[in-house]
Amino acid sequence: MNRYSLCLVGAYVPDYTRVNVIMCGCEANDISIEHARVEPSSPFKRKRRLRQLLRRRPITTDFALVPAFCHHEVAVARKFYEGPLIFDPLISRHLTKIHDYRKAGRFSIHALRNYVADKRSLTLADYVLSDTLAHKRYFHEKYGIPAEKIFPVYVGYNADHFQPGPSYSHQTAVIGFYGSFIPLHGIEVIIHAAHLLRHRSDIRFELVGNGHTRASMEKLAKSLNLENTVFSGQVQYENLPVYIGRWDICLGIFGSTLKADLVIPNKVYHYAACRRPIITKDSPAIRELFTDGRDIVLSPANPRALADRIAALVDNRDRAETIAARGRRMISEGYNHRRIGRRMLELFTEWKTSAMREERHETNRGYLPKARWYENICRGRRQWTGQ
What we know:
Blueprint: E1 4-10, H1 17-28, E2 31-37, H2 43-56, E3 63-66, H3 74-80, E4 85-87, H4 93-100, H5 109-124, E5 127-130, H6 133-143, E6 150-152, E7 173-178, H7 187-196, E8 203-208, H8 214-223, E9 229-233, H9 240-245, E10 249-251, H10 258-262, H11 266-273, E11 278-281, E12 297-299, H12 303-314, H13 317-334, H14 337-353, H15 370-379, H16 381-384
Parallel strand pairs: 1-2, 1-3, 3-4, 4-5, 5-6, 7-8, 7-10, 8-9, 10-11, 11-12
Helix pairs in contact: 1-14, 4-5, 7-12, 11-13
């Protein structure tokens, strides 16, 4: 008999790492999963489709979860579901769109709309998941969400998919990166580090993926006449462990934005699970789990520092193997999908035994009154402008 039941609600992508790990982890801990999913589209269309779906098929599970990136669907889920509602934002829309992608100015109406979308969705949920303690502090300080309402659940990895593969011995060390080429990744730092190491014939770089900055990064590499760097394009998710397994050193993120200090990216969990040595940006979030020099190598987000650390690991393969083994042990013991599912089980148990279920804020039951929204926006002007 299942311990609890959970319904995922929104225009989520089931195969996305965060969603997949939570789903598989819950199922591994006897939590039954149901779906109230609509296809991703414009916010207006997916909210309309979700309303239609929930009218036809109401949610009857013990808990409901609005997964990553589904900020707009929280209000719809709250309107149609009276049970405990959990929201897993994973990101701040305001931080991502205004500060990372710079799609609009900090004082623009677009910035205000994204700030309100964050504030509203975080407020309406009974619980908010955060992927790091740093993100928990950000949601609490930026949006005034009570700390006791924010429940940290690290991203983790699916242990059925990411495992160490066969060891390769390369005369030329392959330095690998995979990602969707977004500003958070700071790929320009990797490109310039590769340029600094161009004289090392025993080092080459492979960048896998596609996305927002891909074209500009290829243009940068071409302008630097890099012959030690290849762009391999998009690969299927199920083939990632094969690519990771053939890299001698794996690179994380090196972005300069605030968001880069708040997250532990998916790729870092995957690299560690595949027992590969990792170099990534030093940040408060990464230090929540990893220790520099023990199970990871941390670097300032600048090309010279990264190039020096790459060269040092290439020149000391034994140290690289030791770091990789320690990283694998730490991640596999504490952050596989079964452990993440157990963490969700702790959240469900906490709700059942906590007074919070009797003390829901009145705004959890629907939209904030207009007067209060006006007050919040006026008081939070400095927050949504990023000052």
